[in-house]
Amino acid sequence: MLTVTLNIPLAGEESLSPAARRLLEAARELLERGEAVISGGPGPAERRPDPVPAGRSPARPLAPAIPTLHILAASRSVLRDGEPLPLTRLEFDLLLHLVAHPRRVFTRLQLLNAVWGYEHAGVRTVDVHVRRLRGKVGVDVPLVTTVYGVGYRLADDARVTIDRTG
């Protein structure tokens, strides 16, 4: 995860330099696609939000709620905000393994051994299954983090619960 702090005066966007304007637009695009969140910021005593100028509507919330995944281990099913999520056997096993070991980074070889049960398949098989899992869950759900040069782990802000009963 990368944290970036921007301090751009928004009172007059027309007075921004071209570079600052491009940076602001890029940040807005990330927020609209759900790939970024706004958090923290100055406290209420330090800065009060500017009133909405006449003729402009207030902005919609910038940080949409992150959907929750609920794993039902006994029935080998996954719910995304209560809706069933169709996963293959290997996608389910990969997700369950990562969720069972939060904050631990696994190499592709370790995942092949733990999830597939063997190490003879190409390590890129793991990449394909991670990509498919991310696609099925949705880009708005932080789930699997790539640790470049090492492997994969469960994202810090993943909202996943496991029900191992009945």
Automatic annotation (TrEMBL):
One of its GO terms (molecular function) is phosphorelay response regulator activity. Residues 57-156 form the OmpR/PhoB-type domain. The keyword Transcription applies. Residues 57-156 bind DNA. GO terms for biological process: regulation of DNA-templated transcription. CDD domains: trans_reg_C. This is Transcriptional regulatory protein, C terminal. It comes from Micromonospora viridifaciens.
